[in-house]
Amino acid sequence: MNIKNNLMFTAVASAVVFSQSVVSANAQESGLQLEEVIVTAQKRAESIQNVPIAMSAFDSDELRKLGTVSMENVAKVTPGLYFTENQSIKSSGTSIRGITPVSGSAGADPSVGYYIDEVYLGANVSSVVDLYEAERIEVLRGPQGTLYGRNTIGGVVSITSKRPTEDFEAKLTAQLGNYSSQRYGASVSGPLIDGKLSGLISGLYYEREGYEYNAFLQDDTNDRKQWGIRASLLFTPSDQWEILVNFDSREVDQKAQSFETLLNNDFSLLGSIGQLVNRDPEDRRVFGNFPGKETLEDAWGLSMKAVYSTDTYEAVSVTGFRTHTYLVDGESDLIPFGVGRNSDPEESDLFTQEFRVASTTDSDLQWMVGVYYSDLEAIADGKILIENDLLTLFGAGFLGEVGGGSTGFVDAQTYAIFGSFDYRLSDQFEVTLGMRQTWEEKDFNWFQNDLEALFGAPILGGTGTAAGSDEWSEFTPALTLRYHVNDDVMIFATASRGFKSGGYNVDSGVPSQQSEGFDPEFMDNFELGLKSTWLDQRVLVNASVYTMIWEDIQIRADDPTTPASFDPRIDNAGEARSSGFELEVKALVSERLSVDFMANLMDAEFKEGVLPTGIGEGIPLDEFAKVPDYTVSANVEYTVPVSDGLELTLRGEFRRQGDMLLDKRPLELFPYIPVREQPAYNLWNARLTLAADNWDVALWGYNLADETYLTNTFDLYNNPFVSQYFGTLGAPRTYGVELQYRF
């Protein structure tokens, strides 16, 4: 075991021993217990400690303490989960246990399935949501190929919204912070017809200045400006029927995110004309001549969940529809000289329907069976605009600005039947068998028109069309064994399989590669887990060890044989393995003091991987990118009574992320790469809350040490029209105040 693993083991062991020993010293305090967490990971309401899945859950109070606006805050305290907002909403991706998405475009499916109120959200644009008014978030790690099925080879993020209440409730929330941050929320809930119908409506507005400054335009960039509303109706016409209708709408209107320049190619075409470029990759300053634009319009969702319950079974129907119109238009080069802009418009309509029936008796056999259908229609464009400065350099300034690109149409349909059967062999031993049969069909049409061919070498690879159609049929089983050592300790073992369908490369590329498409990828997971509580349920210790075998991996890479263009390929390449250890510890030390600890150790590597290049056998791959080799977090919360009905709570948070590879290409083949790895770094957060029965005020701060770290890199170093290697920085120090009043 190397030094890193020794340190990790020491930290984990110390956390467990410390939490149990400290709590044991105060064990005489009667009635003090951790609250039971009820989840619906298996589409039944049950205690998280009885669910044989490696998972984490966060209720609305915990989410607020984390300062959760997006999944980025949740990821920092969840073993194996990695999320970061990249240069756009569309390119922001979620990975679990190293299983990363291949692309944010509609033609390629995600590797982690996002659900809101049991409705599948689809591609990245739909799943990057604000978490205001989330009642609970559940993160399920590992393939969930039985009950969730589609595109869940890495895991599932399930978001449950707050439901309408039987009694009147209302709240107002205001948050102000540096970078002129403003976040306002309001919600009202209560009965409309006593005992029969209740409703909820909430709204949110959020904006802040950017974390980067454009010194050429003398304005900030990487800002945020978003707003939305949500409404719910809960209809209970009888004791047997419950119908929940949800509607949400969201708008985004902000600048496109700008990169930091990590390396300039001064010997390139543009590097030789002496333009002002960024020489400090950590100064949060750029020099582009276009501020960029990112919009999300007509983005709304409607769902209905109908439940019919009897003493022996429960029948559930979940219907959902989601749609959006999205645009990101950003500068390619980030220099004052007008070279080019690239935009990625996207439109998407997704309909889903699930019917399922589950047993509700207390018999030894518990079962659930169901059917699922989804229909996706999407249009995704990839556009490039050549600006006047560059045209003038080539003697074509009289043309003004010209552009071209591609448009891809995707129609995807999914059909599935599934079943889960749990049999209690004895009071201690249970076995669960899950099965899902999935059929998927995809049709693809792609058109390309390159006005840039006037230069003699088409920047996007030429003018052409491509079309394709394919279908896949896969069986994804799961077998789980549970052994209850006693009422507080459960051990489980799982073998499961996940499947992600093939698809087509909607991104800009060459027609020959577009029509070929790519095949499905598969995941086999083998896992041993522990769910346990100790010392009269004042300490929780959950852990898991796993090995995941990833086959026929979909990999995306720019074709290096055409340096003047960005024409990424998506191919199936090789096999990889992800193995690791995950630990969560929660300790209620006393009535005033609580401690949470999380640790994750992960080793993910390619076994036969190659990066597709379009020529030869490709570039050999070894390690995974954007997979920290370990993460550790600790939260300490202490509450002091100030007076009757008034409490002061101090919360401190520590996060450490281990070394993470940012560029998976080998240095021996790409020696110019300036930053291949982000070294380990620490983040410190704090929150001080003064709370009464119906109001509270909190002072908060995140990344208090103002740590500078990279979350993403993007290579256009050898492109003569850009000539830079880019990077994205994580959020700097932020702080502010939050007020909430409850009626």
Overall mean pLDDT: 86
Give the N-to-C terminal Cα separation: 56 Å
The CATH homologous superfamily = TonB-dependent receptor, beta-barrel domain
**In what range is the share of β-strand residues?**
over 45%
Concise summary:
This protein is mainly beta and 743 residues long. The chain has a single domain (3-39, 171-742), classed as Maltoporin, Chain A, CATH 2.40.170.20.
Report on the structure:
It is built from 6 helices and 45 strands. The model is unreliable at 6-20 and 452-461 (pLDDT under 50). It is mainly beta and 743 residues long. 46% of the residues are buried. It has a single domain (3-39, 171-742), classed as Beta Barrel (Maltoporin, Chain A), CATH 2.40.170. The strands form 9 sheets. The protein has a 24-stranded antiparallel β-sheet that branches. It has a 5-stranded mixed β-sheet with strand order 3-8-9-6-7. The protein has a 3-stranded mixed β-sheet with strand order 14-13-18, with no helix packed on it. The chain starts with a helix and ends with a strand. Helices cover 7% and strands 55% of the residues. The radius of gyration is 26 Å and the shape is globular. β19 (293-309) and β20 (313-331) form a beta hairpin.
